[in-house]
Amino acid sequence: MALVKRFWIWCTQHVLLVTVLAVLSLSVMALVNIEILHMTSEPEFCAMCHPGHGFGPLAEVDSWEHSGHAAAGVSCLDCHGRPGPLGYAKAKMGGLKDLYMQFTISKEEKMAILSNPDADLVPMEQCLFCHSDSENQKYRENHRGPLEIVEMRLLDHVENPDFRQRKGLPDILSETQVGGTHFDHAFHMESFDLTCRDCHFGVVHQPKSKTERMNQCITCHSNFAETSAPQIADCTVCHQVQLDMNIGQGAQGVAGETSLMYGADISCEMCHTGVASGVYRPSASNCTDCHEAAYREIYQEWGSETRNQLERMHALRAETENALKKADEVRRDTKNGWEIYRTALANLKFVKSDGTDGVHNRFYVQDILETVEADFNRILNDLKHTW
Ligand code: HEC
Ligand code: HEC
Ligand code: HEC
Ligand code: HEC
Ligand code: HEC
Ligand code: HEC
Ligand code: HEC
Ligand code: HEC
Question: Is the residue at 191 inside a domain?
């Protein structure tokens, strides 16, 4: 008793010191907790029990690592946990269940669960929170309290249209040019009661090819189906960007010319000769249908040069976005910078969405990528020189 009393007296004599110490130890505890939360949300942690390689069950971390989402900084709990602190907490509780199951079920039982994910494992609203404006705003309005308390993950900071535009993404519920394709999400989803999963079955964890995606459309858009849907033979109804690329239009502020071949009346089907047999994608051997063998090398050269350029541009894009965000934080005038950024990003996406590394219109692609590089560099230079 005497000891406690003496301690109390000491405390009253050193109020300031005691307060500082108390605050300090509380913050250390909070920090440690947050650190634990952070650590157990990292893909490296998930990989302890989801360690496979390639695609499919058990390989969820590896497949994610090679996805466009990972490259854009979208991590596990951005999809596997609803927005807001409560959604985050719930996802962490799910983690506790994972932990318990890991030690109580057999390997076979675990594989069975991972091989048959619930159709609603990642609900459609989760995707639309990032990929549309209306669903993002609806969730934000109906959500009580702040969505972000401490910096935990990307999801809680997603506010559209700003996020979408920074990443160069369309509002899929209101825009009908998505990726490189003319496609009306709202019409198709409402008319045929489809969910994201029906078409984007390969998103992140499953290996699915573009051919499989096109075949999905062909179930209705094929010559033998009796519908009002446009037919497969008309490639350009869906492949808007590839048509534009062949014609030499579609990039903002970069004049183009029709590609040498499209201009010489070489139509889509004359290169895409395998369509009737279900092979949509041509390769170098299609060039030699009309040209001599050496044209294979031209084809390889176009591809590797364009891929290198695209890789550099993607890095430059990320650098520019970060520089602009930093400048915003210190309240510099970035209005003009963001405007140039959006144009450059749209042009970069245009080339990426065409998906042919320059084959459809080599000269146009080169001009576009040079303009993109100059635009990003101009923004970075302006940020360095003006205050
Ligand atoms: C201690 C091992 C362990 C760790 C660590 C772990 N998981 Fe799991 N996970 C499992 C097991 C076992 C299952 C299957 C049983 C179940 O559904 O809980 C599973 C299933 C899942 C499922 C599917 C649930 C369902 O109902 O189909 C998801 C999603 C998931 N984990 C995500 C994650 C994420 C994200 C992380 C990292 C933040 C993670 N896991 C870390 C062991 C683990
Ligand atoms: C862009 C959103 C997204 C991201 C990011 C994401 N997932 Fe998934 N995940 C999904 C979807 C969608 C499914 C359901 C798969 C289906 O419908 O077939 C899924 C399914 C799963 C499953 C169930 C088993 C399976 O293989 O289908 C596990 C486990 C899982 N994810 C773990 C992870 C881990 C771990 C990470 C981070 C390394 C991660 N996910 C990142 C969207 C995502
Ligand atoms: C946290 C926000 C976020 C969530 C949640 C999210 N995405 Fe994405 N998504 C992105 C970003 C950012 C990109 C851009 C990636 C890039 O630059 O290539 C993207 C890209 C895509 C693409 C373009 C192709 C690709 O794979 O890169 C598709 C398709 C897509 N998302 C579908 C989905 C679906 C389906 C879901 C739900 C299962 C989902 N997304 C959940 C942010 C998100
Ligand atoms: C009937 C099939 C279908 C359904 C259902 C569907 N999509 Fe798509 N989606 C497509 C096609 C086709 C594209 C264009 C692919 C391309 O050209 O890269 C696309 C493109 C996208 C893109 C990429 C946009 C870009 O600029 O890269 C996103 C993001 C996306 N869809 C999200 C979703 C989400 C979220 C859902 C569910 C709410 C959904 N989609 C449902 C067929 C579908
Ligand atoms: C379940 C059947 C079905 C599937 C699957 C389907 N569509 Fe359609 N689509 C239709 C019908 C029916 C119409 C005609 C609507 C009308 O008459 O206006 C249509 C119209 C269209 C149009 C022209 C209308 C417009 O928006 O201007 C395009 C382009 C299109 N679809 C693209 C696609 C793509 C790309 C896919 C695959 C990702 C796809 N569709 C999958 C049934 C389908
Ligand atoms: C009804 C819409 C539609 C029509 C018509 C259509 N496609 Fe497609 N096609 C798609 C979609 C959707 C994809 C997948 C795009 C993606 O995911 O990026 C695709 C993918 C492709 C691919 C990539 C295949 C791969 O696996 O790499 C090629 C090549 C292609 N289409 C060529 C054609 C040609 C040539 C025609 C005309 C004979 C045609 N398409 C008609 C919707 C269509
Ligand atoms: C000179 C021959 C040639 C012509 C003409 C041509 N293409 Fe292609 N296309 C190709 C080659 C080669 C590829 C594959 C490139 C690669 O794998 O890098 C391709 C790829 C594609 C793809 C797949 C893109 C992706 O996202 O993966 C689509 C879609 C496509 N072409 C549509 C069209 C359409 C529509 C037309 C007509 C407006 C057309 N093509 C005209 C040679 C041609
Ligand atoms: C259906 C026939 C056909 C196919 C297939 C074809 N081309 Fe051509 N190509 C032509 C024609 C016609 C011209 C125009 C010749 C002219 O005006 O001098 C041309 C022009 C060219 C040129 C312009 C310079 C020159 O040397 O004449 C290049 C380069 C070229 N093609 C490369 C390719 C590549 C690479 C492929 C494969 C992706 C390919 N072509 C596929 C018919 C074809």
Answer: no
Number of domains in the chain: 1
Q: Is the CB of 42 under 6 A from ligand 1?
A: no
Q: State the pLDDT confidence band at 226, using cuts at 50, 70 and 90.
A: low
- Give the domain extent around 347: 236-385
Which tens digit of pLDDT belongs to each residue from 135-153? 999 999 988 878 877 677 8
**Contact assessment for residue 241 and residue 95, using Cβ atoms and an 8 Å cutoff:** no
pTM over 0.70: yes
Q: pLDDT, tens digit, for every residue of 227-246?
A: 555 666 789 989 999 999 99
Closest residue by Cα to atom 26, ligand 3, is: 68
Q: Is the CB of 127 under 6 A from ligand 3?
A: yes
Q: Does the pLDDT of residue 74 top 70, yes or no?
A: yes
Whose C-alpha lies nearest to ligand 7, atom 19?
356
**What's the 238 CA to ligand 6 centre distance in angstroms?**
7
Which residue would you say has higher pLDDT here, 73 or 222?
Answer: 73
The CB-side HSE value for 218 (13 A sphere, CA atoms) comes to 15
Residue 295: pLDDT over 70: yes
Residue 259: inside a domain: yes
Q: pLDDT tens for residues 311-356?
A: 999 999 999 999 999 999 988 889 999 999 999 999 999 999 999 9
Whether ligand 1 lies within 6 angstroms of the CB of 74 is answered as no
Q: Is the CB of 98 under 6 A from ligand 1?
A: yes
**Closest ligand to 301 CA?**
8
Largest CA distance in the chain: 101
Residue 331 lies in a domain: yes
pLDDT averaged over the chain? 88
Do the domain assignments include residue 218? no
Closest ligand 6 atom to 280 CA: 29
**Domain harbouring 277, CATH code:** 1.20.140
